[in-house]
Design a protein that fits this description.
Layout: E1 3-4, H1 5-12, E2 15-17, E3 23-24, E4 26-27, E5 37-40, H2 47-52, E6 57-60, H3 65-71, E7 74-76, H4 80-95, E8 102-103, E9 108-109, E10 114-115, E11 120-121, E12 126-127, E13 132-133, E14 138-139, E15 144-145, E16 150-151, E17 156-157, E18 162-165, E19 170-173, E20 176-179, E21 186-188, E22 193-194, E23 199-201, E24 208-210, E25 215-216, E26 221-222, E27 227-228, E28 233-234, E29 239-240, E30 245-246, E31 251-252, E32 257-258, E33 263-264, E34 268-270, E35 275-276, E36 284-286, H5 295-306, H6 308-323
Parallel strand pairs: 4-5, 5-6, 6-7, 8-11, 9-12, 10-13, 11-14, 12-15, 13-16, 14-17, 15-18, 16-21, 17-22, 18-23, 21-24, 22-25, 23-26, 24-27, 25-28, 26-29, 27-30, 28-31, 29-32, 30-33, 31-34, 32-35, 34-36
Antiparallel strand pairs: 1-3, 2-7, 19-20
Length: 324
């Protein structure tokens, strides 16, 4: 893959300083870039790396323009990290230009499934009866799309994803369990990306819903009847239990857990490893992580925490006696 700087700026914008005919053959971080690579700087703290970089060209923000121009060719843009993200997409499109889409010969697509002609179905995928796949959506290898489940347009579904397995629903029957048939499906909007080995369960009666623009990392579990609002992003190993509702524009850090039937409102940011045990309706950043410590200290602190309620009552009693 090769692109000259003028072509990049023509496609993505930005102000080019230097020779537009310079050809770059790769994208690389500042410290590893060679004389044929394009790199970027989004944080001024790494200015020393900028000056030492051998990159053919560097993408920078306006605050770093004079420094970057003194070093050599550069592209100046208001949001260098976003510019670099779009550059990687441009690079990927060029690299994949000769790839053929369609359905891989080893994939199994039910005759009653609907697959848009521009969609790409990878090796060993299974698309079951009544499923719908929208335009320009890509299923990597070994993806399973269950009965009647819907994938919107321009989605990317990575290897091993299972969409539409039964939700975890059982009714107690004495000392046994009676299965609740999962009669809903999964509806996924446009521009959604789902990481490898993530599972999204079908609803019990109504559908599980993933709205437009949602980004899910690897190894995420989405329970039945969950609704995830548009442009929400979840990092790896998040677990969302059944019937929870996640609002739009949320971020959920890796390993966090949202309990069932809770509501997380719009614009909520949840730290990694947090257990969400009650609904969060106010936008903001929420954290619920007990600090790591050596085991003996942790056990002592945990034992103290168990006494907080009684200590609070004792303090209230003492305060009342002092006021008398």
């Amino acid at each position: 893959m090769k692109l000259d700087l003028s072509s990049i700026v023509a496609s993505l914008g930005g102000d080019l300083h230097g020779d537009g005919s310079i050809v770059v053959t790769g994208l690389a971080p500042l410290e590893a870039a060679t004389g044929s690579d394009l790199s970027f700087l989004s944080n001024p703290r790494y200015q020393s790396q900028l000056m030492a970089s051998r990159a053919a060209c560097v993408i920078v923000g306006p605050a770093m323009e004079s420094t970057a121009v003194a070093r050599g060719p550069c592209i100046v843009t208001d949001q260098p990290y976003l510019y670099f993200a779009r550059l990687t997409q441009l690079w990927q499109r060029g690299r994949d230009a000769d790839k053929v889409g369609g359905v891989h010969p080893s994939a199994v697509v039910d005759a009653q499934a609907v697959v848009h002609p521009t969609a790409s179905i990878g090796a060993l995928c299974v698309v079951e009866r009544g499923a719908h796949i929208g335009a320009h959506t890509v299923l990597k290898s070994r993806v399973t799309l269950g009965e009647d489940c819907v994938l919107g347009e321009r989605c990317i579904v990575h290897s091993g994803v299972v969409i539409g397995a039964d939700g975890f629903g059982f009714a107690p029957n004495g000392d046994a369990w009676e299965k609740i048939a999962q009669l809903g499906a999964v509806r996924i909007g446009n521009d959604v990306e789902i990481g490898a080995n993530t599972c999204i369960d079908r609803g019990a009666l109504q559908d599980t819903v993933i709205e437009d623009g949602v980004k899910l990392d690897n190894l995420i579990q989405i329970g039945h009847n969950v609704r995830v609002g548009r442009n929400t992003a979840m990092a790896g190993c998040v677990g969302v239990a059944g019937s929870a509702t996640i609002g739009a524009h949320c971020t959920i850090g890796g390993g966090a857990i949202v309990l069932g039937h809770l509501t997380v409102g719009q614009d909520v940011n949840i730290s990694a490893g947090t257990l969400v045990s009650k609904s969060i309706l106010k936008p903001g950043h929420y954290t619920g992580i007990f600090p790591i410590d050596d085991n003996a200290s942790w056990e002592r602190n945990a034992a103290s925490l168990k006494q907080l309620h009684s200590l609070r009552d004792r303090i209230k009693t003492l305060e009342k006696e002092i006021k008398k």
